[in-house]
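ok so dumb question maybe but i'm new to this and my supervisor (M.) told me to 'just get the structure for Biotin-dependent carboxyltransferase family protein' and walked off. so i did the thing. is this what she meant?? sequence i used:
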Amino acid sequence: MTDRALAVVRAGALTTVQDRGRPGHAHLGVPRSGALDGPAAALANRLAGNPPDAAVLETTLDGCSLRPRSTVTVAVTGAPCPVAVDGRPAAWGAPVRVRAGSVLDVGAAVSGVRAYVAVSGGVAVEPVLGSRSTDLLSGLGPAPLTDGAVLPLGAPREGHARVDVAPQPAPPGELVLRVTPGPRDDWFTPAAVRLLTSRTYHVSPASNRIGLRTTGPALERARRDELPSEGMVLGAVQVPPDGTPVVFLADHPTTGGYPVIAVVHPADLPAAAQARPGTPVRFVAVRRRRESEGAAFATGL
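this is what came out, is it supposed to look like this??
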C-alpha cells in the first residue's frame, strides 16, 4: 500500500476531483468539465507547489476532511472558509504542512460556494480522455468523494510558494455577467431581449455544475416552433420553456434544443461558481468590436 495517498474522513455535500477539464471532445458528446473557478484552482496548485494542470478537490458549501498517509503541503483557496489541522486553526490561502496521519479539516464556506484543496503531488486518479475531472453530466472521471475513499497522490515537486497571503477576489455580492447576442436572440421578442439586460435576476437554489439557474422575469419568445438540437458552448445563456435564463457552466450538455439568447464572457464565469443562491445577477450587453474578439465569447466546446 503506497503512502502517497489521501484518505477521505468526511466527504462533505459534494466534493469532486477537478483539473482543467477535457475540452475538445464536444463532437463525442463529452462536456468540458474541470474546476468551475479556474483561477482559484490554479492558485491552490501554485501555493502547493504543483503544476497548473494538477488535479485538486472542489468542495461545495460545507468542505471536507482528509487524512494524508504521508506528510504533504496543502493549500485551500476559493470560497473563504475555516481550515484546521488536528483541530488547530491553519491558514486559508497559503501553504500548510500536514503531517502523515493528521486530519485536515476544510470547514463550511463563510461566503461563496466552492473551495479548492490542492495537495502536493496532485490527486493522481486515472485520467479519462486526458483529464482527471469528475463530470456530473456524463459520469466520466472519478465518482464524487465518499467517506472512507482513498485517493492516490502524485510525486511532489521540490518547493512551494513561500507567501504570507495570496490575494483572491471576494465572492460576488452581485454577479455581473457581460454578454454578447446569442445565435437565437431573434427567437425572442425585442422586449425580451431588452428585459434580459435591464432587469435583475437572482441565483436559483437549483443551480449546479451544469448550469447557473436564475429566478426573475420570464423572457417571451417570438417563435413557438421547436428548435432542432444544436451545439452548446460554455457560457451559453439558454432559455427553457419557463422563460428564465440558465447560464451553462463546465458540465453543460454539448447539445440542446432550447434557444440561446446570449453568451457570457468566459472571464466572468469563475465568479458564477462562487455566487450563492439569492445573489443578484445582472446581464450587461457589450458590443463586439471585431470578429476575432467576438469569437472569444464562443470558446468552450
